[in-house]
Amino acid sequence: MHYLSTRSSHDLGSFCDVLLAGLAPDGGLAMPEYIPQIEHATLSAWQKLSYQDLAFEVMRPYISDIPEAELRGIIARSYTAEKFGSEAITPLSRLGASNLYLLELSNGPSLAFKDIAMQFLGEVFEYVLAQRGERLNILGATSGDTGSAAEYAMIGKDNVNVFMLSPHGRMSAFQQAQMYSLQEPNIVNIAVQGVFDDCQDLVKAVNADADFKSQYHIGAVNSINWARILAQSVYYFKAYLASGVAIGEAVDVCVPSGNFGNLFSGYLAKSMGLPLRRLIVASNENDVLHEFFSTGKYRVRPGKEVAKTSSPSMDIGKASNFERFIYLMSDGDGAQITRWWQEIEQGHIPSIHEHGTWQAVKESGLGAGRSTHQDRLNTIAGIERRFARLIDPHTADGVFVGEQFAEENVPMICLETALPAKFEDTVMEAVGHPAERPARFADIENLPKYVEVIENDVEKLKSLIAEKLAES
Ligand SMILES: *Cc1c(COP(=O)(O)O)cnc(C)c1O
Question: CATH 3.40.50.1100: does it fit domain 3-113+225-426?
Answer without folding.
Answer: yes
